């Protein structure tokens, strides 16, 4: 067993930490207030290899492994969770599926643009009536005689939807086949028949723009199919396995920021003639925060390591995402409590960490769905 990191892994962690501390953290409060998309910072992440960490260098990426991705995501999320949401979709949800199932042409066109930070990518699975129950999607792609598809339907809650150029879209090609009747497509948001809705007002990760998108007779060419027709649901699920490692890392980063702010505060703030960190009740909270953070980190590194070894990691990714997201919610809750009235004020960042943490229990599969995946895999029952 090896607990150290390679030089390469430490190098990308260092690059991410520097950008997070110098550019992202100082601007996070402003972006949270305005809800503006942090385009310049996102471009900077792209220029530094952070939008395609696991993408081979021949497609414009950094050519590193999943552990390096975890380390970098944690640093960016500690700077600001919203930035790490955008980074996570580009890295895990957009690039992963194309690298595994895409043609050479698709990799050169779509992966390169995203990995280099020239464009932003998105992943469109959810619909107004189908979130957890993803196979209940209705967006329809009808095959034409020339091999192209005409697409009609809506997708909701699409991260980076308002700004992304390219989308991995899942649509029904054969309504009689259930999960096996879903196909993945690569969509260009600049083409006719593609429409973007209004940006959603959100509780947290406010700088990560989210919207509904709609297809009205959008024509996808035969070459825009990702993988085989009917393989789309499996592609979505395997991409989400990887995505869940990214969200676990996001949860760890933002929880670590809340923990570190709390460690400072308990030494400075005095009550009853002593630092509040000297009270045993505060110390118990600090100890529990530390245990949950470390457990989340180790479980997430395990899932990333398995992915890097080419082994199955579905259960381990769900264990990591479930543990880290619930830990982030608990840790940020305690951070607000330990800051007292100041924890409730926008003058301190902990109220933002608390708001941002909640999303990690919802997207890329709610906590209930993670429990379902883990228990189904463990028991073989459903
Ligand atoms: N890898 C590969 N294939 C898989 C798989 C996996 N991890 N999980 C399931 N499959 C396959 C199954 O083997 C099955 O294939 P066959 O038809 O050949 O047997 C097929 O997919 C259907 O599987 P299930 O019967 O298990 O499907 P289900 O309807 O019971 O749903 C579910 C399973 C786990 C609940 C799934 O629907 C799910 O994960 N729901 C949550 C959706 C989600 O996470 N959405 C995230 C949207 S993206 C997002 O949120 C981005 C962001 O925030 C930034
Ligand atoms: P529902 O599925 O309606 O669930 C409602 C409640 O019922 C939840 O508590 C859920 O856990 C519970 N529930 C449902 N089924 C079960 C069950 N079988 N057992 C027990 N409990 C159950 N989607 C994309 O495709 N792309 C994106 O980029 C994207 N980004 C997002 C960004 C944000 C900010 C948000 C809020 C969502 C985003 N989503 C995205 C959608 C997200 O993945 C879904 O919101 C999530 O999967 C839950 O689906 P739902 O909202 O429809 O809730």
From TrEMBL:
Oxidoreductase listed as a keyword: yes
InterPro entries: Acyl-CoA_DH_CS, Acyl-CoA_Oxase/DH_mid-dom, Acyl-CoA_Oxase/DH_mid-dom_sf, AcylCo_DH-like_C, AcylCo_DH/oxidase_C, AcylCoA_DH/ox_N, AcylCoA_DH/ox_N_sf, AcylCoA_DH/oxidase_NM_dom_sf
Catalysed conversion reaction: 3-sulfinopropanoyl-CoA + H2O = propanoyl-CoA + sulfite + H(+)
Boundaries of every Acyl-CoA dehydrogenase/oxidase N-terminal domain copy: 6-117
Any Pfam family matching the protein: Acyl-CoA_dh_M
Cofactor(s) required for function per UniProt: FAD
Protein name per its UniProtKB record: 3-sulfinopropanoyl-CoA desulfinase
The organism of origin for this protein: Luteimonas yindakuii
